[in-house]
């Protein structure tokens, strides 16, 4: 019986180091697939001695992949475990490996952005900037070293965690654990995408539905505003009471305002669902992006948006 092939700590460290450059060959069609494939090369060379097997392995890792660059580490760890089990004879096909990657990358992307970009980095940046403003050289050094130490430690330890968990997943394929994890991750990913639609997708229809002349007192009469500080104070007080509608004599209502009163974010949701449907129909992401640009420019020229 042939000796079982095992990825050493040195092999996994090499993968983790390369994984820092996940976005190095980012593209609009398959996004981080090039960086992912580059990261996993040391493991593929160790696991598959046959040249054809190495080529086949790298080909399956050139499929679409995109997530937060740091929380991608546990996905890599699970993938390493699956590849290791496959190299040792386990019945793990290309679809199973790709399914795990796709199933995990969505939910983890939703976690990585708020934790790293919106919490940790601003906190470290504010701390470093406050020291730098006082003329202390420690400020920028603190940000640089703290950020990179945390980032690199997170990538390594979460990759190791994924690797250990991935071995359990591979051993329980017959029990349906992989399918349950993939299904659960997909559901969570769709939930997160749905929650982020309103934040990341913006559509505004500009056609005017109605124009109504407001009654006296419902708007700021600029002719009666005094000059100087007293006039500015009066205008600000009126604005705080009347709101944006008080800036003009006429109240203008756009199509978008009416839509927002019915179902806020409906147009953004429909556009997102349309893009998902086109992707399911195997329409190239490049075609979708170009089409969105074209529609947006035409709608702007026609004063629809």
From TrEMBL:
Keywords carried by this UniProt record: Membrane, Transmembrane, Transmembrane helix
Signal sequence residues: none
Pfam family, one: EIID-AGA
Transmembrane segments: 137-157, 177-197, 262-280, 286-302
Taxonomy, superkingdom: Bacteria
PANTHER family, per database record: N-ACETYLGALACTOSAMINE PERMEASE II COMPONENT-RELATED (PTHR32502), PTS SYSTEM, MANNOSE-SPECIFIC IID COMPONENT (PTHR32502:SF27)
Official protein name in the record: PTS system mannose/fructose/sorbose family transporter subunit IID
